[in-house]
Amino acid sequence: MNPCQDNKALKLMVQEALPHGKNGKVADYIPALSFANPTTLSLAIFDSEGTCAAAGDISEKFTLQSISKVIALALALMDRGEEGVFSRVGMEPTGDPFNSIIKLETHSPSKPLNPMINAGALAVTSLINGNTIDEKLGRLLAFVHELSGNTSISYNSEVSESEFKTADLNRSLAYFLKQHHVLTGNVEHVLELYTKQCAIEVDCQDLARIAFVIANEGKHVESARQIIPLHIARILKTFMVTCGMYNASGEFAIRVGVPAKSGVSGGIMACIPHGVGIGIYGPALDDKGNSIAGMKLLESLAQRYQLSIF
């Protein structure tokens, strides 16, 4: 059965997954995220018929955080090509936390292992074309508008400022990368762009539409326009499978088995190849930084509708 035609079951699965959030806590190392309601859970699914089914607190908005790494990678690859990007960042998963510096110090050359960890994402964001921060951010937002079909999406200035002021670890990662010529240019400018990128604000329906384009080999459903080149859409999904759920990606692949990317705001974007996009928001996190209720909800969806790609 198509999950978009099964609204009653979707609402029930949200209700069943919601209590799992009590075992987690909202992110508080970015002060502005600490005000999120931990009892919130929402789900949206968008399919190739242009149908969007939703359940839960669907009006709740949240910032993309690390989910934005997928979108920035797509844009950087379109701007610089695979050689330009992967000369600065690797393609291998890591078992370390997303903000770890240890692999930079122990690997040679000292480039980030993949674009889904913070060091790799900073390197990728620095590669987005544009002469100023505003120009680069404008291109990134325009890309999000095109993917989602929602031109009102912007970034949350309160969250971005909070994140920028407390970005000491990311700042140290960025300066390390600059020392080793992985990142060029002004570190503070890269950090400002990165924190604004992470603070792009959506709801779960916007996220499901973005996820659909990636799932659908880069093609928009209504216009049939190829927004993301096919080979890049496949690269994105591969990184989402291997690195998308932080250092829980292996277990997630076994339990759920779909390309997905989480963020510490509690969002999860899942892309079912060839035409289903899923957006989830549940801000109570586990110790890896993934939404507890959102993970449980995705596991239930995968089992009920046989979504695993494996």
Strand-helix topology:
Blueprint: H1 7-17, E1 42-47, E2 52-56, E3 62-63, H2 68-86, H3 102-106, H4 118-125, H5 133-148, H6 157-165, H7 168-179, H8 187-198, E4 201-202, H9 204-215, H10 230-243, H11 249-255, E5 260-262, E6 267-272, E7 276-281, H12 292-305
CATH H-level superfamily of the largest domain: DD-peptidase/beta-lactamase superfamily
CATH hierarchy class name of the largest domain? Alpha Beta
Radius of gyration: 18 Å
How much helix, percentage-wise, in residues? 40-55%
Question: If you average the pLDDT, what whole number results?
Answer: 92
Shape descriptor reads: globular
Biggest β-sheet: strands ordered side by side in the sheet = 2-1-7-6-5
- From the 3D coordinates, which CATH architecture of the largest domain would you assign? 3-Layer(aba) Sandwich
Low-confidence runs: none
Number of helices, where a helix is a run of at least 4 consecutive DSSP H or I residues: 12
- Strand proportion, as a percent range, falls in 5-15%
Number of domains: 2
Fold-level CATH name of the largest domain: Beta-lactamase
Query: How far is it from the N-terminal to the C-terminal residue, by CA?
Result: 19 Å
The total strand number stands at 7
Helix-strand makeup class: alpha+beta
**What is the H/E string?**
HEEEHHHHHHHEHHHEEEH
Question: Largest sheet at a glance?
Answer: 5 strands, antiparallel
Catalytic activity: L-glutamine + H2O = L-glutamate + NH4(+)
Keywords: Acetylation, Hydrolase
InterPro entries: Beta-lactam/transpept-like, Glutaminase
GO molecular function: glutaminase activity
